[in-house]
Design goal:
globular; Uridine Diphospho-n-acetylenolpyruvylglucosamine Reductase, domain 2; binds uridine-diphosphate-2(N-acetylglucosaminyl) butyric acid; Uridine Diphospho-n-acetylenolpyruvylglucosamine Reductase, domain 1; five-stranded antiparallel beta sheet; alpha+beta; Uridine Diphospho-n-acetylenolpyruvylglucosamine Reductase, domain 3
Length: 336
């Protein structure tokens, strides 16, 4: 047995919400062999297993029994591929650092996804997306281990069944696999995607991937709180996708409501706008609040617990439901 297992490990600094949490046992495997060892150990001993990525989309309870595994596989490399480049990035690579390194090399594809906190291994689970781009647009394959027997597999992008904040890893494969590596397809050929907000105005005539990534960072910093300063998990709710009838009813009442027709005829609404319209922006109760610059982000002022956060979020969702008749769904996962 070579993998180190730490007892009573403090995870307080390992989640961007800043919730206090202690793991009964903790391991950070550095390569696939160690990861397989950790999975086998939990299986043999009957320990409940919790997988941790960068901790940026996660709500932690005060204590996690069993074994918490945070993959620390941290290599990434490029593979030339015809006109483009394949990027291999292991699960523990910091997503934003990878995005900036690729943008600095003049590669197009991930620049709109700059400054999203978290590790590469978690990115496919909710199909991270921002500013008109989703991971699924650039992902070619996902390498993984099955949790039950440690066997390796590779899923192509189609098998990942990506949707808005959705993938097979939240459905058929939920809690059954551990992602070990992403394979992305990037290109040196310019293909800026600048339709969101005033991105185009921020980057000038002949944008580079780095200029776009820096503009995205600037936009995010204006609206989203830095987890190092104020605990948060980014958007706390999904943007709800409603029927055309519901959207028409709401638009009749509020013609300026932001709305985005979907290919299937339904309509995506902006949860941040709905919360804002309820007058909740900047609302604080106890240790939690609604961010004063982006109502979709709930913030933790310190000293709170997962239970209090969930109760606070319920109160926000209840107000949106009673005002608009729309149910909000939580985005961050509840661990344990
Ligand atoms: N809005 C308000 N008030 C608010 C917040 C938003 O009126 O307090 C309005 C905005 O004016 C805009 C609309 O709602 O008309 C949408 O707002 P925004 O462009 O800020 O984006 P979002 O829908 O709130 C989504 C993602 C973000 C991503 C941005 C940019 C989800 C759940 N969230 O937010 O992702 O950065 O678009 O693409 O889809 C995350 O998932 O953690 C995240 C930050």
């Amino acid at each position: 047995m070579s993998i180190a297992v730490h007892a009573e490990h403090d995870l307080g600094g390992a989640n961007t919400l800043g919730l206090p949490c202690v793991a009964e046992r903790f391991a950070a495997p550095r390569h696939v062999g160690e990861l397989r060892e950790a999975l086998a150990l939990a299986g043999d001993r009957g320990w409940p297993l919790t997988l941790l990525g960068g901790g940026s989309n996660l709500i932690l309870p005060a204590r996690l029994p069993g074994l918490v595994v945070q993959p620390a596989l941290e290599r990434w490399w490029l593979e030339p591929m015809g006109e483009g480049v394949r990027v291999h990035a292991e699960a523990g690579v910091d997503w934003h650092r990878l995005v900036m390194a690729l943008a600095e090399r003049g590669l197009w594809g991930t620049e709109n996804l700059a400054l999203i906190p978290g590790h590469c291994g978690a990115a496919p689970i909710q199909n991270i997306g921002a500013y008109g781009v989703e991971l699924g647009d650039v992902l070619e394959a996902v390498h993984l281990l099955h949790r039950d027997d440690g066997r390796e597999a590779v899923l192509g992008a189609a098998e990942c069944a990506f949707g808005y904040r959705d993938s097979v890893f939240k459905r058929a494969l939920a809690d059954r696999v551990v992602i070990t590596r992403l394979v992305l397809r990037l290109s040196p050929t310019p293909r800026p995607r600048l339709a969101y907000g005033d991105l185009a105005g921020r980057v000038g005539e002949a944008p580079t991937p780095l200029a776009v990534a820096e503009a995205v960072c600037a936009v995010r910093r204006e609206k989203l709180p830095d987890p190092a300063e104020l605990g948060n998990a980014g958007s706390f709710f999904h943007n709800p996708v409603v029927t055309a009838d519901t959207a028409a009813r709401l638009l009749h009442e509020a013609p300026t409501m932001p709305h985005f027709p979907q290919p299937d005829g339904r309509v995506k609404l902006a949860a941040g706008w709905l919360i804002d319209q309820c007058g909740l922006k900047g609302w604080r109760e106890g240790h939690f609040g609604v961010h004063d610059r982006q109502a979709l982000v709930l913030v933790h002022f310190g000293g709170g617990s997962a239970e209090e956060l969930l109760a606070f979020a319920d109160r926000v969702a209840e107000q949106v439901s009673s005002r608009f008749g729309v149910m909000l769904q939580r985005e961050p996962r509840l661990a344990g």
